[in-house]
Design brief:
The complex is a heterodimer.
Chain A lengths: L3 E4 L2 E4 L5 E7 L5 E7 L6 E7 L2 E4 L7 E4 L5 E6 L8 E8 L10 E2 L3 E5 L1
Parallel strand pairs in A: 2-11
Antiparallel strand pairs in A: 1-3, 3-8, 4-5, 4-9, 5-6, 7-8, 9-10, 9-11
Chain B lengths: L2 E3 L4 E5 L4 E3 L2 E3 L5 E7 L6 E6 L5 E3 L5 E5 L4 E6 L8 E10 L7 E5 L3 E6 L1
Parallel strand pairs in B: 2-12
Antiparallel strand pairs in B: 1-4, 3-9, 5-6, 5-10, 7-8, 8-9, 10-11, 10-12
Classes of the chains: A mainly beta, B mainly beta.
């Protein structure tokens, strides 16, 4: 059974129209990540949560925001999507702490198309 | 800052042949190292990981990787490739995460696309 679930798998949005991608996990992991992967490129970390502590990457545009209302759910909000934001967005989770040699588990990804 | 280099963008092998995918990393401390595989349109699946101990790591689907500190390398190998191994392979290094604890965050290489000929 899938442990990191992303919805929707495919999303088409209009240029400038806000969009939200969701991620849920059944692993009770305290760390959740959002990665952006453009076509034929490596996944790039946007930000992550350690419990409720939000950690933004220095080069993540302000257009990208995130919310984590509880342990199980995390949302990626794109306030004004541009054509350059078309990508696959990957959610991932891990258990942090305790010397932490723990695996990071990825979801199947959400494909975003901007028209 | 940490970085990962995968020198080969695309590799083609024949089914049944051996495979080696190269990975070099740059990180100031002892690294956490990973290999992930990604099929088209799918998420990332962990093949294997190295945190400490034995430098030869066994993974799923018959893959193994060897950590060589002196060469800053973590090459992935498989003795006999199957057609179902065709996919994109990403090497990643784990660096210390943000505030709050000892989690880590992954920096990926650009990936190597593997094609398997029948």
């Amino acid at each position: 059974d899938a442990m990191v679930i992303q919805n929707p798998r495919y999303q088409v949005t209009q240029f400038g129209k806000p969009v939200t991608l969701s991620c849920s996990q059944t692993l009770n992991h305290n760390v959740m990540y959002w990665y952006q992967q453009k076509s034929s490129q490596a996944p790039k970390l946007l930000f992550h949560y350690y419990d409720k502590d939000f950690n933004n990457e220095a080069d993540t545009p302000d257009n990208f925001q995130s919310r984590r209302p509880n342990t199980s759910f995390c949302f990626l909000d794109i306030r004004s999507p541009g054509l350059g934001d078309a990508a696959m967005y990957l959610c991932a989770t891990t258990r942090g702490g305790g010397g932490s040699g723990n695996t990071i588990y990825f979801g199947e990804g959400s494909w975003l198309t901007v028209v | 800052a940490q970085s990962v280099t995968q020198p080969d963008i695309h590799i083609t092998v024949s089914e049944g042949a051996s495979l080696e995918l190269r990975c070099n990393y740059s990180y100031g401390a002892t690294p956490y190292l990973f290999w992930y595989v990604q099929s088209p349109g799918q998420g990332l699946q962990l093949l294997l990981k190295y945190f400490s101990g034995d430098t030869l790591v066994q993974g799923i689907k018959g893959f193994e990787a060897e950590f060589k500190r002196s060469q800053s390398s973590f090459n992935l190998r498989k003795p006999s490739v199957h057609w179902s191994d065709a996919a994109e392979y990403f090497c990643a290094v784990g660096a210390a995460g943000g505030s709050g604890g000892s989690n880590y965050k992954l920096t990926f290489g650009k990936g190597t696309l593997l094609t398997v000929n029948p």
